[in-house]
Amino acid sequence: MAKTWNGTALQVLHGSWRPGIPSNHINEIALIPDAADLSAQASVIQQGGRLRKRVKAKLYVTGMTAYNNFVNYYLAGTSGTLADGDTLNGSYMIESMGEPEYINDSAVFFDIVFVEV
């Protein structure tokens, strides 16, 4: 199925699409010990909520103009709907982008990370 972001079809290098699975963020917090009762509970567990999902991929575009469009979206903090045609469909923005790797004038490859917003 076609992968899209913000209405733009994504050209993904085969095998590089890696949607992450968020985990619950759990902290164990130490309590001040009670001198009168050393056997009392010394810590509590607190849940901080679900971490945001991230999707990593290596994309290619057919020229520097298309690459610069992604850079402009990244710098502006633009969010859009990211869909992979299977289970992923949500609002994401570009968290980071790699430097362009030139194969020839018609193929520019780069790494990208989308983050859920």
Features:
11% helix; two-stranded antiparallel ribbon; 1 helix; eight-stranded antiparallel sheet
Describe this structure in words.
The chain is 11% helix and 50% strand. The model has no long low-confidence stretch (mean pLDDT 86). A hairpin with a 2-residue loop joins strand 9 and strand 10. The protein is mainly beta and 117 residues long.
In short:
By secondary structure, the chain is mainly beta.
User: What is the percentage of strand-forming residues?
Assistant: over 45%
Largest sheet: 8 strands, antiparallel
Q: Mean pLDDT, rounded to whole units? A: 86
Number of contiguous helices: 1
Rg is: 21 Å
Summing up helix and strand content along with how strands pair, one would put the structural category as mainly beta
Uncertain regions: pLDDT < 50 for 5+ in a row?
Answer: none
Distance between the termini: 23 Å
User: What is the succession of H and E elements?
Assistant: EEEEEEHEEEE
User: What does the overall shape look like?
Assistant: elongated
Please give the number of β-strands. 10
Helicity level: 10-25%
Topology of this structure?
Elements: E1 3-5, E2 8-10, E3 18-19, E4 24-30, E5 43-50, E6 54-61, H1 64-76, E7 79-83, E8 89-97, E9 101-104, E10 107-116
